[in-house]
């Protein structure tokens, strides 16, 4: 009565709220991180670039970041906090000043998340600069495309072709923004990727980079 019942009510309330706020059925997930991961991406702006991790080729960059991650002890000062009218221990609902709790906030500062959360984070695969003599060489940090192809696509992004009738820019989907668009073949179940893709006035545009012979359809 003093531990199992409050736990059952807490789980039920949590599952209900996850479904209400995020459209997620918590019964379908095997861990809290996987559920939180899905909730986070459900709330992300679909017009923004996709979140990308380091590939094997650039794993040394990931290791540099890992070397600077500093952790520490984490203290949980209140185990049970109840903001509903359900039955639970009095200390879970009433603060030391005699007033009921109205909100609960918990922060984890082990990885200095507070500083990171205040900054705009990069979401593309990234551009890598390596020193070569007295100069720096620029390269992309993903496979399946080239620096020249990305430069051409960003050039096309600024042309009138990628603007609507009101002059508003239409975002081209490509390897560094939402990933390459997948087109289903007219036969079979296979798909093929196009370097760039966007729609304007109901017309689909496909952009392909072939060295110096770049084309759009």
Q: What do you see in this structure?
A:
This protein is α+β, with helices and mostly antiparallel strands. The chain has a domain at 147-216. It is 25% helix and 15% strand. The chain contains 5 helices and 7 strands, in the order ααααββαβββββ. The strands form 3 sheets. A 3-stranded antiparallel sheet has the order 5-6-7, with no helix packed on it. A two-stranded antiparallel ribbon has the order 1-2. The longest helix has 19 residues, at 4-22. The N and C termini lie far apart (68 Å). The mean pLDDT is 85.
Main traits of this protein?
single chain; 217 residues; alpha+beta; 3-stranded antiparallel beta sheet; 5 helices; 7 strands; elongated
- Tally the beta strands: 7
Percentage of β-strand residues? 15-25%
Order of helices and strands: HHHHEEHEEEEE
Q: By helix and strand content, what is the structural category?
A: alpha+beta
**Average predicted local confidence, pLDDT:** 85
Structure annotation, total helices: 5
Shape, please? elongated
Query: Which spans of ≥5 residues are poorly predicted at pLDDT below 50?
Result: none
Task: Give the strand order, joined by hyphens, for the main sheet.
Answer: 5-6-7
Gap between N and C termini: 68 Å
Largest sheet: 3 strands, antiparallel
Task: Work out the radius of gyration.
Answer: 25 Å
Helix content: 25-40%
